[in-house]
Fold this protein.
Amino acid sequence: MSVLIGDVVRRELGIGRFLPTEDEIERYIEEVQAYNRVKHLQYMPTAEEIKLVIQNSPHMHRWRGQ
């Protein structure tokens, strides 16, 4: 629900959608794969599936320190 609300607020304020760079996409892929090595996911998406999700996400989560 918070993602939906965040997207509505983003649109109402006229803030553009998230347009990830190739480096950011690769970082997400690396993070998901690393997380799976530590805590096995019920479903491990392929790199192409992760890329599809990130490219179509209207906003992103910022890691601490960024």
Q: What stands out?
A: The first helix runs from residue 2 to 12. Residues 2-55 form one domain. DSSP finds three helices and no strands in the chain.
